[in-house]
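Data availability (excerpt). The following record was deposited with the supplementary files.
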Amino acid sequence: MESAKHSQKGKCPDESKSEITILMVASDANPRGNVYGGVILKHVDLIAGLVAKRHTGRSNVVTASIDRMTFLKPVYVGNALILSARLNYVKRSSMEVEVTVEAEDLDIGKRVLTGTALVTTVALDENRKPIEVNPLILKTDEDKKRFDKAESRMMNRLKEAGKIYR
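Predicted structure:
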């Protein structure tokens, strides 16, 4: 007999993915017009939380880690910062969200990839304890490939944190 907590309806990655666009202004940057990495990280964290929240529904979602954040190219004042995020992996209460960061030069309409990040989030109940979330439904080969790679990364994170010993 299937328990109530295991009968949750799963969701595929497309159901929770998101994209946001934000105009970068002078208060986001240093005096030379380069957008601060912390400003970009803030938006990475926000969109990752949004994707995780869409997947989990009513539970509280918190960031457990941001790893492999890579800044590939600068973002400047006047650029549109475009962040795209999707869910790669779900375990019991944790999720890996992949975020892609682009900058668009609005004067010429050219977009460049400026960064990528992997964000691990955890769903919590009203007592701030981890809670089981919807499983991830993998419909495409690409979804399965992303899931497998993310699962491997999750195992490495757990080993590094001393939570598993294999």
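Summary of structural features: Helices lie at 37-56, 141-160.
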